Amino acid sequence: MSGATSQATRAEARRITVPGAGEVSALLVMPAKPTALYVLAHGAGAGMRHPFMEAIAQRLAARGVGTLRYQFPYMEQGGRRPDPEPVAVATVRAAVAAGRAAAGGLPLIAGGKSFGGRMTSRAAAAAPLEGVAGLVFLGFPLHPTGRPGTSRADHLDQVQLPMLFLQGTRDTLADLGLLRPVLERVGRRATLEVIEHADHSFHVLKRSGRTDDQALDQLAAAVSAWREGLS
Q1: CATH of the domain at 140
Q2: pTM for the whole structure
Q3: For the chain, where are the E strands, in sequence order?
Q4: Structural domain tally of the chain?
Q5: 132: domain range?
C-alpha cells in the first residue's frame, strides 16, 4: 500500500436498518478534516471488508473523503446470490439516509463497486436520493462477461445527477467501445476516467509497468478531483 495510506484511518462500526430486510453492518471511515462523504456499496461477490474496499476507503480518507461502506442483506447473511433489486434498492436508500445523518452537512456522494454501483444508479433512476450530489461507479458492470450489450445502462438516462465512471481498459464487464457511446448519450452528466491496463477488479498486468497501488491511487485521486468539481 502506498505512502498515502501508511497511517490508516480507523473505521467505526455502524448498523443500518433496511425496511423489510432487517439490519446490515456498515463501516464509517471519517478523516480528521473531511470534505465529503461517499456512501460506498460493495460488489456482488465480496463484502464491505474486501481488501479493495478497505484500500480505496483509506486512500479516499487520505484525500479528505470519508466513506460509509455497508453490506447488502444477502452478504450480511452469508449468502452468495445477490438480493432481488427491490431489496438492493431499499438497502441503498437506507444507507444513503444513514450517510446523510453521518455526514453532518458535508457534501454526499454515493455509488460503489460493480453491482453496488449499479444498484445505486437504479435507485437514483427510480426516485431522487435525498442529499446526494453525484454518483461514483468503481467499475460499472455494463454487461456479463462474454455477452456484450448496453441494456444494463438504459436507466442512466433517468439519473438526474452528475456521474463519474472509473473503468479499466481490460474490464471484461464493460467494453469501452460500448460504454463510451452510452455516456455520450447521457451527456454532460457523465464523466469517464480510464484506468489503463486495469481489469474489473482494478488489477493491472505486471508487464504494463504499473502496479495495483498506482491504479488505486488514480481511482482515489479521480474521485477527489471530480467531487471538488461538483462544488
Answers
A1: 3.40.50.1820
A2: 0.95
A3: 11-18, 22-29, 36-41, 65-70, 108-113, 132-138, 163-168, 190-195
A4: 1
A5: 3-230
